[in-house]
Structures are given as structure tokens and as C-alpha cells.
Design a protein that fits this description.
Blueprint: E1 3-7, H1 12-24, E2 29-34, E3 51-55, H2 61-71, E4 75-78, H3 92-113, E5 118-121, E6 123-124, H4 150-169, E7 172-174, E8 177-178, E9 181-182, H5 191-207, E10 215-217, E11 223-224, E12 227-228, H6 229-239, E13 250-251, E14 257-258, H7 259-269, E15 274-277, E16 287-290, E17 303-307, H8 325-331, H9 339-352
Parallel strand pairs: 1-2, 1-4, 2-3, 4-5, 5-7, 6-8, 8-13, 9-12, 10-17
Antiparallel strand pairs: 11-14, 15-16, 16-17
Helix pairs in contact: 1-6, 2-3, 3-4, 5-7, 5-9, 7-9
Length: 354
């Protein structure tokens, strides 16, 4: 029986990977890890009764060795991480230990206990560190690694260690670059979910004629390639089944969108019309205000979105446009869901699950 180990069972991508395997490969034995037990009931998008759950902490080498020696999986997908860029300046050591050293510990356990295992570590577009000033039209597999945050640096270290173990020990170890992925399971501290939950909150307030606070954001002109987590899960399976030695691929939607555009589409999905308004021309004074059916501002100005300096990062990667032509051509991958599909899913979920 094929054994698949997925770290980060409770996370967005972990859940979508488990669902993918239960749907597409029901005969596989699925092992999934969590950092600590929770006695609260949690809703999953997969059948939890068919998953073997183990405790594994990426900062604890003993737990890593124990799980991998016990199960000797055929595949490992490491989706577990400290993955919030904004917090990584404040708790950089935790990010470096979990995302960097933790991967090195996983690789060493694979080398010792299951060297035939196929190991896929989740990389990130943040490693590429691209900005509008760079003048790049897009990023692909040839783009130079240039991290701009402690989070990105931790992932870059993991990439180099993955390459070292592949080249030194002949392991099937690879770290693709996954550009931003979303779904209704996205964590609430991420800007996309912050926006869709804010839109849902405002939707109910408008419906009930109640006052509300606007959504507060940072850089509206930061660009990202967004895709659905379910499409990323399918791509990772393809990455795990190449000819050896495996290649790292860019996994992205082949497009880019600004935070500003995401805001507009999210309010549109909720049936709320608005427009951007700025009397001074200063970035911090920009607002997204409610309009009527004709696109005109309401008599009483109602602010839907405002800008707050505290949400700007010390160093921002403000232009990510993933070019995924290589994985499309060589492995036949193509995302099924558009950005509009993703936003509609998230907004609809948040409106109906306040």
C-alpha cells in the first residue's frame, strides 16, 4: 500500500492535499501530522476517520525521527510552516527554525529511514523577492533567489538544503515555488481572507442598516498571482512523480492582480458597489467608498476600505507574476479555477458563515 505523509493536517493546503488523495487515490494510506492535540471539534473538507494522525513538531527532531521511522512513507509533502510574512520580522527565529532547520531535520530523517521516499517541500514566491522597481515582467524557474523577509529567507535556506540532500545523497527531494493560493480555508490573518471576511461583515451591516468599521489595509498596489489551493494540490502530486532527479517548478496562475483589484472583485461578489476616493493624492488618504446603482457616491460618505500605515511591511515584495509555462508544458498541469471563482467561493462562504 502506498503511504503518503502530509505535515500540516489542519492547514489550508494540508486539507486540500488530503482531500485530493481521498478523491483520486482512495487506496492510499494517508498519514497527517499536527503539532499538538486539540480536543475541540474541527470541521474538515475530508473524511478524518480515514486519516492516521500523528504528532510532529518541525522544531523537534525526536518527533520527526519517530514518525518517519515508524511509517517509512513513500511520499512526504511538507506543508507545515510558519507562513505569515508580516509576523516574520517580529518572530524571525521561530520562522528560521521551523521553516529552515525543520526541513533539514526532515531530510535527514528521510535519508536515514526511507531514502526511496519522494519528498516535496513547499516553496514560496516570496523567495524571489521581486518588486516593481526590478522591472521584471514575470518570474520563472530562472529568477534569482532574493529574499526580502525573514520568512522568505527561511524558505530559501530550506531550498538550498533540499538541493544539497538531493545532490549529495541521491534523494528524490524537491521544492517547487508555489505562488499565493487561496480558498475558503485561508487563514483569517492573511490579507485575502481579511478582505472577504470584512466584505461579509459589511454586507450584513448594510443589510441590517447598522454602522460598521471599514476594512483597514496596507499597500493596495502590491501584486500577486493567486490560484486555488485545490489546483496547487494537484500540481504537487505531479511534481512528486517526475523522472528522477526531480525539477523544481513554478506553480502559478500565469497572471497577476493587485490588492486593489481583489478588493473591488470581493465587494462586487457581495453585490456592493464602490469606488476609490482620494482628495489629497496621498496614499494613506485613499478610501474605497460606497456608491449607488449609478456609481455615484452616497449622500453620506460611507467608507468601505481605508489605509493604515501599520499594515505596510518594512520591506515589501510588491510584484509577483508567476510564469508557470514550464510545468504546464512538461507535466501537463493547468489550474481549473480563476481568481473570480476563488473570490466568489470565499465571499459566499464568509457571508453564509459569519
Amino acid at each position: 500500500m502506498t503511504k503518503v505523509l502530509i505535515t500540516g493536517k489542519n492547514g489550508q493546503l494540508g486539507q486540500h492535499l488530503i482531500k485530493f488523495f481521498q478523491d483520486e487515490h482512495p487506496s492510499f494510506e494517508i498519514l497527517a501530522t499536527i503539532r499538538h492535540k486539540s480536543y475541540d471539534k474541527q470541521e474538515f473538507i475530508f473524511d478524518d476517520s480515514k486519516v492516521i494522525t500523528e504528532l510532529l513538531d518541525l522544531t523537534d527532531g525526536a518527533s520527526i525521527d519517530s514518525v518517519i521511522e515508524k511509517h517509512k512513507p513513500d511520499y512526504i509533502f511538507n506543508t507545515g510552516a510558519n507562513a505569515y510574512v508580516g509576523e516574520s520580522w517580529s518572530v524571525f527565529e521561530s520562522h528560521l527554525i521551523t521553516n529552515g532547520l525543520g526541513v533539514a531535520k526532515l531530510l535527514e530523517a528521510v535519508r536515514k529511514y526511507c531514502p526511496k521516499c519522494r519528498f516535496v517541500n513547499l516553496g514560496t514566491s516570496e523567495e524571489l523577492g521581486c518588486t516593481l522597481k526590478d522591472g521584471q515582467k514575470s518570474q520563472d524557474e530562472s529568477t534569482i533567489i532574493s529574499p526580502k523577509s525573514p520568512y522568505a529567507a527561511s524558505k530559501s535556506y530550506a531550498r538550498y538544503m533540499t538541493d544539497i540532500y538531493r545532490e549529495s545523497y541521491g534523494l528524490y527531494a524537491v521544492q517547487p515555488w508555489t505562488f499565493n493560493f487561496e480558498s475558503k480555508l485561508r487563514g483569517e490573518k492573511y490579507v485575502t481572507r481579511k478582505i472577504t471576511k470584512g466584505v461579509a461583515r459589511i454586507y450584513h451591516s448594510l443589510k441590517d442598516s447598522k454602522d460598521f468599521e471599514p476594512i483597514k489595509l496596507g499597500n493596495l498596489n502590491s501584486y500577486r498571482s493567486w490560484q486555488h489551493a485545490a489546483d496547487v494540490a494537484k500540481a504537487l502530486w505531479l511534481v512528486a512523480n517526475q523522472e528522477s532527479p526531480p525539477k523544481p517548478y513554478v506553480i502559478s496562475e500565469n497572471d497577476t492582480h493587485s490588492i486593489r483589484e481583489f478588493v473591488e472583485k470581493a465587494f462586487f461578489a457581495a453585490g456592493i458597489k464602490g469606488c476609490w476616493h482620494n482628495l489629497t493624492g496621498e496614499p494613506l488618504d485613499e478610501e474605497y467608498i460606497l456608491t449607488d446603482e449609478n456609481g455615484l457616491a452616497t449622500k453620506k460618505k460611507i467608507v468601505l476600505v481605508s489605509i493604515d500605515q501599520k499594515f505596510f511591511r518594512p520591506s515589501d515584495v510588491d510584484f509577483l507574476f508567476g510564469n508557470s509555462n514550464k510545468i504546464r508544458k512538461e507535466l501537463g498541469w493547468k489550474p481549473e479555477k480563476t481568481l473570480e471563482d476563488i473570490i466568489w467561493e470565499m465571499v459566499d462562504w464568509d457571508i453564509n458563515n459569519p
